Amino acid sequence: MHEITGIILAGGRARRMGGVDKGLTFLAGRPMLQHVLAALAPQVAKVIVNANRNLDAYREFGCDVVSDIVGDYSGPLAGMASGMQSAVTPYVVTVPCDSPLIVGDLVARLYCALKEQDAEVCVVHDGERIHPVFLMLRRELIGSVLGFLDGGERKIDKWFATHRLAVCDFSDQPEAFMNVNHPQELEALEQSVAKR
User: Fold this and answer.
1) How far is CA 141 from CA 25, 126, 190, in A?
2) Which residue, of 36, 45, 175, 187, has the fewest CB within 10 Å?
3) Domains contained in the chain, CATH given
């Protein structure tokens, strides 16, 4: 735990949600970021939030808040790089701000898979597909991420192909990676949170 910083990615435009700031959108009576933070914080040494708007509102959660250091809303890799630049631990783990059902062993399982598979990056697989923003990576890869972005690239899976990638099987808990891209998905998550 003391070797890992958590980065919550809240820097997107959320165009499919009508441009709302998803991390501050209420779910079951609390901002979505608060759900994510409550699940992630006990698993890491420190949490950093990557956001590009409403920075003061995000700071009220008690975390360091960093904006994209590359480009203008340049996607999750830019958010990762921003968090990595601020982190001081050897590893970082990233999660999106709109997936509030994070499980309590997410970080431990990613770390074990990274070590067991002698990888540089470890990504979640839910049994059907990978979830590329649920990942752990070595902080020393920041130069690689920045170089990739400086070259005009944005596709995270293309960046994965340049490193030793481990896949962590979460097929036993696929619902943990539900996220919100449309208003209907917010309704579905409300029901899932209520059941918990």
Assistant:
1) 32, 25, 36
2) 187
3) 4-195 (3.90.550.10)
